[in-house]
Design goal:
mainly alpha, globular, 22 helices, single chain, 63% helix, two-stranded antiparallel ribbon, three-stranded antiparallel beta sheet
Length: 611
């Protein structure tokens, strides 16, 4: 009888897992805080815990960098995670952007009201929801959810096998589904967006895991290194070339869904518009960084090992995705009249520009990796800053008004269970008097903001110029390096299309700047329209999708009820966290545009990762 083999305990390099463990561990502690810390102290503890965890994770990444760079990567947990310079760089970008986004998420107005519903389980418009608002309940569960999502984002680009990548995908996605449904205002829109995101995300996850099964059927392993080895050895290729290519395309489809690339982009505008604005900024910046990190790892490790004929087909598919994404993002973005939807289509266009940097995955030169990392940081700073500005620009009613409950704009006490609150409700008083309501997302409502709040409008204009790729901003360097990497591998037509798409995108960015600085606040005319509405490409401003009284399309008492909200916009006072985040983003966008060399050098070092 053969003696049983002795059990060999696995050796785990715990030091290389510290960044992820700090974030996920803080998320678990945050759940316990919800159970055991008294209500009066819970929010402070959660905010401090979340910020401290993210700061600790960033510190540990900085301390690990020299060692990881010297070893050119360390395989952890039997190869399930690969802590290499590239993965560590993406983790650093995710943590920096998450730290800034958490500041925006934690901020409240001067009347102690945040962006989240007092109780997520309440039916919108119900008496229970109205009671929760009156009692001042808060959703502090937001912070553990953010930490769990960040933990999944940190694992996502550092995975060494497809199964771990799928687990990381779900860990980052599930909290985002919940966070999307927690908006304090426009509750029905928020819940609809969450349902769309969950449903389409479930389909994308199913496609991803089915692709993993096909890749496993070809290579007999889900480990990326093993799949690469099987491809290079040519084992099992007879009659199975279509299998591995189909499996890889399905895996990439699941990843392209997360980055919002066309034709998998349909969820992006609705989710960005319906989610709480601080969460929208968090998703737009951090999820894109993590997903593109995972996408690049799969392409560079597995895609580059495909036979030349299959690799050519994959490159053609990437060309189609890049061109379609840039066209959809820019062309449809031009006609948008809602600020959050405009930024959503801007995000889609930038996903196309990022895909341009990946078309040379077959040549491990490092230029594409450098361009991708720099672009993710530059875009993330501008995006978090832009959505942070949107959270501060609000609609204002000069006095409590009564609005039908379905408009979700009534003051507390006027219509039970409706809307966003009056003087004693969620938003309180504005600096110039009146009742603060939800974010002023219609473009016409931003007219004249440069005169009322020049510094805030100036910061927003800087972020838009960076997204447009104007010189002396981070966005210009990002786009230049992305197109340069495409030209280096012979994809100059793709770079040319990217330049043309960027030129078209400049229109809707500059249109907002013109509205803020060169257009007076909306003034009603004899026909009910306004100058700002004409410039914005719309007949009139609207609230929650409904036309305002006195404008084309407004009818009956509903239009009269929201008339007081049409042209009254204010910049709210807050606790200051959002101001800090905006300031840091402004400094980052300027420094990356004026002095990018040090960051580009770090990104080039991060491009050295082993398959």
């Amino acid at each position: 009888m053969t003696p049983a083999a002795a059990f060999v305990a696995p050796v785990i390099e715990w030091a290389y897992l510290v960044p992820v463990l700090v974030v996920l561990g803080a998320g678990v502690v945050g759940v316990l805080v919800e159970a055991f810390v008294p209500d009066r102290a819970r929010r402070v503890v959660q905010v401090v815990l979340a910020l401290a965890a993210l700061a600790g994770a960033l510190t540990s990444i900085v301390l690990l960098w020299p060692d990881v760079l010297a070893q050119n990567g360390v395989r952890v947990l039997g190869g399930a995670l690969v802590v290499d310079p590239f993965g560590l760089a993406v983790q650093g970008i995710v943590v920096v952007l998450a730290l800034l986004a958490t500041l925006v998420i934690a901020d409240r107005t001067s009347t102690k009201q945040d962006a989240f519903a007092p109780t997520a389980a309440a039916v919108p418009g119900s008496a229970y929801e109205d009671l929760a608002r009156r009692r001042g309940l808060e959703q502090t569960e937001v912070f553990p959810l953010v930490l769990f999502a960040v933990g999944g984002m940190m694992i996502f680009p550092a995975t060494g096998d497809l199964l771990t990548m799928f687990v990381a995908l779900e860990v980052l996605s599930l909290p985002l589904y919940v966070l999307t449904a927690l908006a304090r205002r426009r509750r029905l829109l928020s819940q609809e967006a969450s349902f769309k995101y969950f449903l389409l995300g479930a389909f994308a996850s199913a496609i991803f895991i089915f692709g993993v099964a096909l890749v496993y059927g070809f290579a007999g392993s889900v480990r990326l290194a093993d799949v690469r080895g099987a491809l290079l050895e040519g084992g099992g290729l007879d009659g199975m070339t279509g299998l591995v290519l189909l499996g890889l395309v399905m895996v990439l489809t699941g990843l392209l869904f997360k980055v919002g690339a066309a034709p998998f982009h349909s969820w992006t505008p609705d989710v960005y518009q319906g989610a709480p604005t601080p969460v929208t900024g968090f998703m737009a910046a951090c999820t894109k960084a993590a997903a593109f990190g995972a996408l690049l790892r799969v392409l560079y490790v597995v895609g580059s090992a495909l036979p030349p004929d299959l690799q050519e087909k994959l490159v053609v598919a990437l060309w189609v995705v890049a061109i379609l994404t840039m066209i959809v993002g820019t062309v449809i973005g031009v006609i948008q009249t809602d600020m959050k939807r405009l930024l959503a289509y801007s995000s889609i266009a930038h996903a196309g520009f990022l895909v341009v940097a990946l078309v040379g995955f077959g040549e491990l030169s490092g230029f594409g990796v450098r361009a991708l990392l720099f672009y993710l940081l530059a875009y993330g700073l501008a995006t978090v800053g832009a959505f942070a500005v949107v959270t501060l620009v609000r609609e204002r009613a000069p006095q409590p008004v009564v609005v039908p409950a379905e408009a979700e704009l009534a003051t507390v006490g006027a219509v039970p269970g409706a809307g966003t609150g009056g003087p004693a409700g969620p938003s309180g008083e504005s600096p110039d008097g009146g009742v603060v309501l939800g974010e002023a997302t219609h473009l016409t409502e931003w007219a004249g903001l440069g005169k009322r709040s020049p510094w805030l409008a100036g910061a927003f204009a800087l972020f838009l110029l960076s997204m447009a790729g104007i010189p002396l901003t981070a966005g210009f360097i990002a786009k230049f390096t992305a197109f340069q990497s495409a030209v280096a591998v012979g994809a100059w037509p793709l770079a040319l299309i990217g330049v043309l798409a960027s030129a078209v995108a400049v229109f809707f960015y500059v249109r907002v700047i013109v509205l803020m600085f060169f257009t007076p606040s909306p003034r009603a005319t004899t026909d009910g329209s306004s100058e700002a509405a004409t410039l914005a490409g719309a007949d009139a401003p609207s609230t929650d999708g409904e036309p305002v009284a006195g404008t084309p399309g407004a009818t009956g008492g509903r239009g009269a009820a929201v008339a007081a909200l049409a042209s009254r916009v204010t910049v709210v006072r807050s606790e200051g966290f959002t101001t800090i985040a905006i300031t840091i983003c402004v400094i980052g966008v300027i420094l990356l545009g004026v002095l990018p060399s040090s960051v580009l050098d770090l990104a080039f070092e991060a491009a050295k990762f082993r398959p």
